[in-house]
Amino acid sequence: MAHQADAKRALDERGYTGALIRGDNPLKLFEKPVRDRIVDSYYWKEQCFGLNAATLLDRAVELSFIGGTYGVAQKPTPFLCLAFKLLQITPGREIIMFYLEQEEYKYLRALAAFYIRLAWEKDEDVYKTLEPYLNDMRKLKRRTREGWALTYMDQFIDDLLINTRVCATTLPKINPRLFLEDEDRLEPRESALGEELEEMENEDEDAGSEGEVEEVANGDAARNGRSISEQRERSEER
Amino acid sequence: MGDRKAGAYGTSTGGDTAFRKTWDRDEYAAKAVERDQRIKEEGKARHEAAAAGKKYVRRASTPPDARDTEARKARLNVADQVGKTSIVPAGAGQGKRGKGAGFYCDACDLTFKDNLQFVEHLNSKQHLVATGESGEVRRATLEEVKDRFEWLKRKRDEETAKDAVDLGTRIENAREIEEKEREEKRRKRNEKRRKTKDGMGVPEVKVENDGNIF
């Protein structure tokens, strides 16, 4: 078993033979302009040539930020290039789980989470695999179009599950958690806050503050379809 | 019609047609058989591919001794020529061919003017063939991934252990590094000495290696 050292053949329009994701070439999960920019970038040519699932670790442990494209020229970040490489080599499930479960390197975990959201086809699997990491509160540096931003692992995972666009990529459609719960494909999520959350809600209700809070009753951010980042902002406002 | 071998003027040696090439009939018959066989085999393969609903593509065979392509071990050092003067032979290289000023590829005997072209060349089929690589990367197993991860972790830990803040360990570390460098120098010197026949070693005159003047 082997795969090509670069993505030239996989990107050939005249036909693709290889692993499929959702019945299509995995590399097409990235949009054409981003694809072209990645293949043109120096990082891709120099650092991503001939990587396999093991040597990819060398590059992944050196990651120091996440992000999509940056600058006026919209250069792809190393994070994006490595995600693209992962899509090209489509490593086995157990390898991706190993990337995700290791504690040492947070950017490797973020990379694995991003890949899982892109490549895994069953919605339940994605939720079940990624949600435990909503407890991971480590900081992540994110490169934005111009400048830098601070985010957290839980926020990043939450973005992956709720937003449609993350890191210059349109994520494949995923059913919202509530829908899956209604169809009995998923158990309702136990929040890490547990009873504390309910107590907090009761207090809020007693105080009779905003009407919005009532919506949150017996649910947490992900269930309610509201992202953690929004909640953080809201709590800061208060 | 008389004798076939006779020339136009009745000479028995063939005379004026002696200049013609004489064909080794057996050799060409063997070649024809081989060719027929090849065509037959290809037709069979083509038929089988069509039956399986695929398109038959004839491929040049990969040399049996080609090894797998591997990831670069280190970053390309594009700055190692900075600040050095090198002598380029007059009229060296037509276009990219030959050794000239720039990034030189030993295997393909080509020179590139910028690192982007150079790295593109290193990834190209031409270069891979010239260095005997197949252009295919072996898939890693979970075990390999785990081993690699452990190795990387160990490496990082060793590096961070060196980042000591107290003076004693820092002096100790510096001494170790110095010792290593000295050892390396000694090794090089000995190697040089061994290379010459009389064992006296080359005199300490800087040779112009690769046309580089330091």
Which key phrases capture this entry?
heterodimer; A: about 240 residues; mainly alpha; 2 domains; three-stranded mixed beta sheet; two-stranded antiparallel sheet; 13 helices; about 10% strand; B: about 210 residues; 5 strands
Overall structural domain count of chain A: 2
Oligomer: heterodimer
Strand order in space, largest sheet of chain B: 1-5
Biggest interface and residues each: A-B, 28 and 31 residues
The helix-strand sequence of chain A is: EHHHEEEHHHHEEHEEHHHHH
Helical fraction of chain A equals 40-55%
General form of chain A: globular
- Lateral arrangement of strands in the main beta sheet of chain A: 2-5-6
In N-to-C order, the SSE pattern of chain B is: HEEEHHEHHE
Content-based structural category of chain B: mainly alpha
Terminal Cα separation of chain A, in Å? 57 Å
How large is the count of helical segments of chain B? 5
Average pLDDT of chain B, to the nearest integer? 80
Number of helices of chain A: 13
The beta-strand count of chain B equals 5
Major sheet attributes of chain A: 3 strands, mixed
Please render the helix and strand layout as text:
The complex is a heterodimer of chains A (238) and B (214).
Chain A: E1 2-4, H1 32-40, H2 42-47, H3 56-60, E2 66-67, E3 69-70, E4 75-76, H4 78-89, H5 93-101, H6 106-119, H7 123-130, E5 139-143, E6 148-152, H8 153-162, E7 165-166, E8 169-170, H9 177-182, H10 195-207, H11 212-215, H12 221-224, H13 228-237
Parallel strand pairs in A: 2-5
Antiparallel strand pairs in A: 3-4, 5-6, 7-8
Helix pairs in contact in A: 4-6, 5-6, 6-8
Chain B: H1 25-51, E1 85-86, E2 103-105, E3 110-112, H2 115-122, H3 125-130, E4 136-138, H4 142-162, H5 167-195, E5 212-213
Antiparallel strand pairs in B: 1-5, 2-3
